[in-house]
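Forwarding the complex inputs:
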Amino acid sequence: NAGVTQTPKFQVLKTGQSMTLQCAQDMNHEYMSWYRQDPGMGLRLIHYSVGAGITDQGEVPNGYNVSRSTTEDFPLRLLSAAPSQTSVYFCASSQDETQETQYFGPGTRLLVL
Amino acid sequence: DQQVKQNSPSLSVQEGRISILNCDYTNSMFDYFLWYKKYPAEGPTFLISISSIKDKNEDGRFTVFLNKSAKHLSLHIVPSQPGDSAVYFCAASDYNYGQNFVFGPGTRLSVLP
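Prediction (whole assembly, two chains):
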């Protein structure tokens, strides 16, 4: 099993550009989440999904869209990148809501100029 | 205002000694707590959890203590090993809030040989 994979590992964008951060898991997990990590702060939840076709907002959803058309994939879209979105993004999946079984991807480092 | 605080950004201990990482929270509704460990360029990995019905949970070298009246939890690592050098995140959740955990900013532990 590959676990949770994220692409790309690193990306530089200009302000106003759009892009999609990819996330895939091969563990048949229903729950998937996107977090961002900024210096001096903990991980903050952006969006999450409890199953295919179902998504909901987390703590910091503005500027991001998600969709969950399959169990495996949970892409995060930046519609119009802003310097405030410079961060490290982590995707995670879990088999139940207690999150003891939550697995994180290696992260995508995004720099918006 | 951060609901989960880890007031020590870094901690250094000698190999073989005890490491104590602290976490404080402000929301009295939090009733489930996790500790994650993160190595550079990797995603966080689950370490140990505790629910509010317990005041201690142990897993090998790792023990988490919960003091609900003080809204404080701590992670003890005994004995500390160089491989324990990582960033440790505390996370808390209100069961009624589902899988939306609030993370602390992390403490970087360095175990010196």
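The two ends of chain B are 37 Å apart (CA to CA).
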